[in-house]
Fold this sequence. Notes:
Pfam families: FHA. Residues 54-119 form the FHA domain. InterPro entries: FHA_dom (IPR000253), GAF-like_dom_sf (IPR029016), SMAD_FHA_dom_sf (IPR008984). This is FHA domain-containing protein. There is one protein chain. This protein is of the alpha+beta class. The radius of gyration is 31 Å and the shape is elongated. The protein is 37% helix and 24% strand. It has three domains: 3-150, Tumour Suppressor Smad4; 159-323, GAF domain (Beta-Lactamase), CATH 3.30.450.40; 328-388. The longest helix has 59 residues, at 300-358. The model has no long low-confidence stretch (mean pLDDT 84). The chain has a six-stranded antiparallel β-sheet, covered by helices on one side. The protein is built from seven helices and 18 strands.
Amino acid sequence: MESYNCFSCGFSNPIAHTHCAKCKKSAAAAAFISNGTGSFPEGFIWPLFPRALVLGAAPADDILIPTNKIHDQHCRFDYVKGVFYITLPKNSPTAFIGGQSIRPNMKQALNNGSTLKIGDEELTITYFNGTETFSEVQNFQLKQLAEKSVNPTVCRLLHIIAFKREVINLTNSTDIYSFAVDTILRITDLDRAYAFQVITEGDELKVKEVIAKDSDLSIIEEEEFSISRSIMTQVLENQGAVFIQDADKEVTSTVSMANFNIKTVICLPLTVKNEQGERELIGIIYADKTLSTTPLPSGISASLQSLRKITSHHLVRTMQNDEANSDLNSFKHYFTNLKDEMDKIRNYLDDTSQHIVVGTSTDTSVFQERITECNEALKMLAENVKQNF
């Protein structure tokens, strides 16, 4: 497992931790602070953890700036002996440090107070380790800023913005389900997530699994999913709001939660309004955690509601595309079969013609029988076309 050393006490921590497990201090070694020149307001903070980092507009990027002027994986930062070094790939737009353009594929140090201009954003880097010349008040302010920079609510907001920005480019429902699963795992830190399509059969609602992933976003492949079926049933019966069963010892778990040692469950019902104006369930995203009893972050429900609404809206769009593609595929299959049958008749006629030319038979009844067979085959094809169109 990847790890980093806390810049305060040197303790080795898992790479995903935002606070040191030993000294409990913020794990951020520095932060970018917006100067307010671009899409983000003055004072907006991005934490910089003491490890290799990627800045970009994609949800997978460590320093997430989801704007049109920032590319996915726009640039890379390496942390070496207390200093961050920026590397700009050759194909990335020009960036500037203190007004000077950065040479591509060349590491350049970012010292305390350096200003980075990237896209429309102008960011100033502030290191949290301070110096011996700093006063006690200045060091205290740096510690406060370090803690402020690690804000899970802001992190979730950036991921929701990035999700909304990129989901519009997805053209099928499976990709949207997969992207939504990735996002919910990133903003909740749960262990795994599943996406289900809800299908109506008669008066019954049935679920069809679309995709399942672990916390590292790798796909789970298993025949039977050890999820809380009772909670899924509750979501199916009540198609309204987000369902959260938080990790709290005082809450009585359902039987299936106890059986599988599930401590925290989140279910997002994906709904649309049908022609009658009634809410209709089209999918469910389920996520849970089995090992930790730490409660979910406060305010996460609002982020999940936003994710649910965005996902539902774009699923409707792609479901229509899926239906159109399904119809198109059906036509392709039908016409391929029709062509194959016509080719068989044509080949049969060609064979008959060759026999007549070379005179392999003088019995005209043989050829008459072949013509009759072709005629019957053509009638069957014509009837099939009439019935299907």
